[in-house]
Design goal:
The structure is a homodimer. The first copy, chain A, is an all-alpha fold. Chain A has four domains: 12-68, Annexin (Annexin V, domain 1, Orthogonal Bundle), CATH 1.10.220.10; 83-153, Annexin (Annexin V, domain 1, Orthogonal Bundle); 164-239, Annexin V, domain 1 (Orthogonal Bundle), CATH 1.10.220; 246-309, Orthogonal Bundle (Annexin V, domain 1). Helix content of chain A is 72%, strand content 0%. The A-B interface holds A 118, 121-122, 125, 129-131, 133-134, 137-138, 141-142, 145-146, 149-150, 153-159, 161, 186, 190, 193-196 and B 118, 121-122, 125, 129-131, 133-134, 137-138, 141-142, 145-146, 149-150, 153-159, 161, 186, 190, 193-196. Chains A, B: This is Annexin. Chains A, B: One of its GO terms (cellular component) is cytoplasm. Chains A, B: Ca(2+) 2 binds at residues 257, 297.
Chain lengths: 314, 314
């Protein structure tokens, strides 16, 4: 369930007028901007962007970029986009960073549904005039490249059928491949990039039943290079993306300071989807409410905005 | 341009009734079936299937399968399907053959537009309850697998931009990779599976200008294993698919007997698209009209059907 609280009836024109007032003159009225956009769903935000363009002959996104700053600006910029466009942007930003971060690439490829991933690839074409896979491929080499390009390009079957014999034989194949280390990465790549999610979860369960250890644990025991880390992330995202996001949030608010980028990413991308359940997982794991943790780690209008998206006014 | 001659106004119900008459009793009226279905486009054929189902509570495809036989049956079965469903079927048949034939996989992946290829992948899900890439991956190994899975999974950027510097650097990279033989196949795979078609054609032209030899010629000089053959096919399909189809037709009607499967495939899949231009290329290359060659190599109702799709009544 979503945490976003959006009224079913809103007037895009009135919202656009109110936003026009909030960005007028010196210094924007951040609270007004948050109280409007932090309570509108994707379709509503798109209507507001259109109404704003018509009223003021100006792109609302560009205007907000120039009026806001810091973490709030980045969070609002991500929030206001349509989901597919936002994920395409996040992927591109991850690929352009100096310190390459493949986590976002794996996350988008493995958490989204096959149809959603395809929508992101289309949005990537429109926005960057290139394919997502060619940018991934140009930034990587070897087995890591094979794995990431395969994940990004996947269009998994979405049905709920499970082939138990296949789960057994591929759990065995994964076991052999992990033991042989880098010799047999190709089998790991083939299985992780092509099978349906339902089938893969059955395979991972089979693995755990047969070997008494989670495949992610075994993989990280055997290697800590980029390939092993990416394979591990992919398995976590496919296995249970809510648990995966709980961990991202926990690490983002860990002892070595706050990772605002990860915090913003998870809250903005999940607020309209299943942040409610992720909050529950977080509470079970940490005995702290996610809102309290976020409130402690952030401040000012950025904090206000994140809490608003989480359905909690501060 | 298409060669198919289809009247804009037709009555699906009248067509379905006429087909019902043609398959009634002992022995079907092949000529009547050909004269109807051989003159209807994809949307019209789908309407006829629906009308037939409503009228007779029976699947027209299944009925035709039981009434027709041999090459005509196979050609009609392929023709009557929607393009994406047909290509999914052709891919699946190619993967199930004992003597593996990757030509069809490469052809579908590289001739179709990115959006069309995605429609085929969706149709494959619906029909076979698996992804096309998982069947390709399960049937292949090594570099051939990487290449084929990459081609099948590609969603190339479809714009017309050319980056001349990139064309130069990747023409150089391809040259180095081909020289080093199997050591550097991964660069060939990366370039062929991710770049836009427009960009790739620029790269192949750059290669020819720099080295005085077509990259396909160089590739087949350096290796004749399955990987090299598949890479070569991919380049031919991307470079000029009409020339590619001319060659498929020429080989299908070569000196060692007729390859009805290839002949049917090209005529059925291109009759509604660009068989007119392929006929022109064929005539230029062979000084024989394609219709004459087909008429010489085939016979009976099968011949009549192919000629009808080519816009030529015999």
């Amino acid at each position: 369930m979503a945490t976003l609280v959006a009224p079913p009836n809103h007037s895009p024109v009135e919202d656009a007028e109110a936003l026009g007032k909030a960005v007028k003159g010196w210094g924007a009225d951040e609270k007004a901007i948050i109280s409007i956009l932090g309570h509108r769903n994707g379709a509503q935000r798109t209507q507001i962007r259109e109404a704003y363009q018509n009223l003021f002959q100006e792109d609302l996104i560009k205007r907000l970029e120039s009026e806001l700053s810091g973490d709030l600006e980045r969070a609002m910029y991500r929030w206001i986009l349509e989901p597919a466009e936002r994920e395409a942007l996040l992927a591109n930003l991850a690929l352009k960073r100096d310190e390459k971060c493949y986590q976002v690439i794996v996350e988008i490829s493995c958490v989204l549904s096959p149809q959603e991933l395809f929508a992101v690839r289309s949005a990537y074409h429109n926005r960057f005039k290139r394919s997502m896979e060619e940018d991934v491929a140009a930034n990587t080499t070897g087995h890591l490249r094979q794995l990431l390009v395969g994940l990004v390009s996947s269009f998994r079957y979405g049905g709920s059928e499970i082939n138990a014999r296949l789960a057994q034989s591929e759990a065995d194949a994964l076991h052999e491949a992990i033991k042989k280390k880098n010799e047999s990465n190709e089998e790991i790549i083939r299985i992780l990039t092509t099978r349906s999610k339902t089938q893969l979860v059955a395979t991972f369960n089979r693995y755990k039943d047969d070997h008494g250890i989670a495949i992610t644990k075994k993989l990280s025991d055997e290697g800590s290079d980029e390939f092993h880390m990416a394979a591990n992330l992919a398995i976590s995202c496919i296995n249970d993306h809510k648990k995966y996001y709980e961990k991202v949030l926990r690490n983002a608010m860990g002892s070595i300071g706050t990772d605002e980028e990860a915090l913003t990413r998870v809250i903005v991308t999940r607020a309209e989807k299943d942040l409610k359940e992720i909050k529950d997982v977080y509470y079970k794991r940490n005995s702290v409410h996610l809102e309290h943790a976020v409130a402690k780690e952030t401040s000012g209008d950025y904090k206000k905005f994140l809490l608003t998206l989480m359905g909690k006014e501060d």
